[in-house]
Amino acid sequence: MGKKKLVSLAFLMLLLLSTALYGCSGGDSESGGEGGESESGGEKVLIFGRGGDSVSLDPITVTDGESFKVTKNIFDTLINFGEQDTEIEPALASEWEAAEDGLTYTFQLQEGVTFHDGTDFNAEAVVANFERWAAGDADQFPYYKSMFGGFGDEEEHVIESVEATGDYEVVIKLKRPQAPFLKNLAMSPFGIASPTAFEEAGESFGDQPVGTGPFKFVEWQRNDTVTIEKFDDYWVDGEPKLDQVVFRAIPDNSARLNALLSGEIDLADGITPSDSETIENDENLQLFERPSMNVGYLGLTTTREPFDDPKVRQAMNHAIDRQAIVDSFFEGRAEVAKNPMPPVISGYNDSIEGYEYDPEKAKELLAEAGLEDGFTMELWAMPVPRPYMPDGQKVAEAIQSDLAEVGITAEIVSYEWATYLEKAAAGEADAFLLGWTGDNGDADNFLYVLLDQDNIGSNNYTYYENQDLHDILIEAQTEVDEDARNELYMQAQEIIHEDAPWVPLAHSTPLLAGGTNVIDFKAHPTGSDKLASVDME
Amino acid sequence: MLHYIGQRLLQLIPVLLGMTFIVFMIIRAIPGDPAQVILGQQASEEAIKALRTSLGLDNPWYIQYFDYLKGLVTGDMGDSLRTRSPVSEEIWPYLAATFELSLFAIIIAVVIGINAGIISAWFQNSWFDYTAMVLALIGVSMPIFWLGLMNQWIFSIELGILPTTGRENVRDPINNITNFYVLDTIIQGDFNQLATVLKHLVLPGTALATIPMAIIARMTRSSMLEVMRSDYVRTARAKGVKMFWVVYKHALKNAIIPVLTIIGLQMGLLLGGAILTETIFGWPGIGRYIYEAIGFRDYPVIQSGILVVAFIFVMINLFVDLLYGLVDPRIKYD
């Protein structure tokens, strides 16, 4: 058993191993990664890395952002949101007119538009889409239910009729005025689909979507990639600029960043605030900010002691140092929140003074509530990162130590996400971290959905009830005069501020990153980005 | 032999049946309503109710269970609650992706693990032995998450020789025929693409191979050490057989049986336990498919996914049991 033999054997093994690995790493001596490779045939292909796969590509059947990210580029809506805001702009409807009473809308449609399958886009096609939606149910078309109240002949259904009054003219009649009606129409779920295609495909339309959008569907490999390519007959001149877009699911945030750094993807979603510095220091990369349309908050369940006392809820608001939370866990890429909705939304009440960080004041309020010795509570921390709450656990720890200052002992608990939401909705949490990203940029989508008594058991997790607030919110839903409506929402925010069912924490700015070769990418606040005008160098 | 196989297959039925029952009960015991999760925070109360009814979640559990079993008998694994497609169709590409990765990983683990184990036993207490066993100990306790990300950083970003994530170059996708990309590229005779596909396998494959490799090395070493002390090995050496042949021919044959068992078990574990690797390397495999289904409370996918993995696990072990007979003719199946 000579030592020489041993050494030479070890070398042999090493040699074998390295050849095997080299063999695997490919014969071509040029760069093995996909980064440096030039795109084949000069085609402009954009690879968009994101955290999850789509559920379905039939936009009306889904509610998740990852689905809309793709369908936004396959389908057009009658009305568009602005490039980086939720103001309304013409799209498939080139102009429209609302009657004085807010009950009748007349749309003039864009002429010369065709669907990807060659079907003509006209008034008939629009009517066919609305008929398809109205014939569904809440299970099939959940967003239609949320936005337009119901289906078919149901009383809650806002839309009375949709009629083609010319080849390119459609009249929509409502049963009662709906202030955010046009904004609703601009939402991704209401993309206009080819009637020929959805009649033929039936349930499987989500696997072979056909719209009028800038890109047409090519292929979907589940949990991996969705590929769409340029639609040559797109009705907007000069768009789209890219030949192909591939949406790739890479669930792990760090791995997605690695893929971007190595050049395998061109654009990455879900960049954590702590990685922003890496990107800004890399000359090949650029950082994109998605305008904020969200809120992260600490909800206080108003039916549980001692949070049934508004004084205690106000004390909580004074006890927590939001600025410190924003600085440490959002890396400053967020705005401290004082209202339940972000300032970009029309009707935001800027005259409200947020509760300032003041532990002494908090102690006084607790004493007034008869709790001078403090109390013990459970503090629920979100188990998953969300743009409005990048790290629930750490935020909870910061809140815990703030509360300890004023004598409140908070025990941090957490559950798996689906369980967390169900238990919170059942009112089982004392205080819980949660948040919301807006759908259509309307105040109703924040205040009514999150804090009205109608939504207790669903999105009003705090069980907060206030009749005055309810009356105002309901009135605002049908108020068509913009100023009068904003005035109502201002009042609503005052009531909420006084009752303090939440500790509003932050309106965060979600981050994306891309190579410097990506031109004209504009991140949209709703989270679904239209890539028609994006180009690559 | 055939009798034995038949017997083993019959034993499979109560095992799988018991498993479907346990999985069925566990996933219903955890809180969380699939309808709520599918429709998301935005959903209205009525939408959730309607969905529950249409998914059959309103029925008592035993009716749901028997409906599920009835379906299984006719080859219907149910429809995914989330995508509404049949699980039996959906599952195949994921299974193929995981199978390809696991096979690649287990080959690395076996080749390196067994050889390292043999050499360690051969030169017991040498520096090679010590190094290999320390490495094996590190390997067993290695956090795959960290290892995967470090490898991405070194080999993709710093050295630029391997891709970080995925199965293929999405800028130049392969023609998919069987969902086994290595096989597809060979069928089409496209060796550039074969190289690309193999390159994509290297990082996730080695990350996945780390733990089994270490376990196999340790197992082989201890098994070899035992055999090396036996009389017949001493006889062989006394007869002047070269040490190399004594080790690789005489000793290994008897030492390999327990190692085979470990390999079989590890292969089975890789199939279902590759979730972390699949997540870090963006690999569209069965582990992630089932894991995400748990997040969405997608009952049919969880049930049928676990059933399929369990079935393969049992089949691999049956195959390993049959291998014993080939390796050691003393083992008979009656």
UniProtKB/TrEMBL annotation, chain B:
Pfam families on file: BPD_transp_1, BPD_transp_1_N
CDD domains: TM_PBP2 (cd06261)
An example Gene Ontology biological process: transmembrane transport
Cellular compartments annotated: Cell membrane
Cross-referenced SUPFAM superfamilies: MetI-like
Highest taxon above the source species: Bacteria
Taxonomic path: Bacteria, Bacillati, Bacillota, Bacilli, Bacillales
Topology versus the membrane: Multi-pass membrane protein
UniProt entry tagged with the keyword Repeat: no
Example of a GO cellular component annotation carried by this entry: plasma membrane
Protein name stated in the entry: Peptide/nickel transport system permease protein
Family: Belongs to the binding-protein-dependent transport system permease family.
Keyword Cell cycle in record: no
Ranges that cross the membrane: 12-30, 101-123, 130-149, 255-281, 301-327
Keywords, alphabetical: Cell membrane, Membrane, Transmembrane, Transmembrane helix, Transport
InterPro entries: BPD_transp_1_N, MetI-like, MetI-like_sf
Domain annotation ABC transmembrane type-1: ranges: 95-324
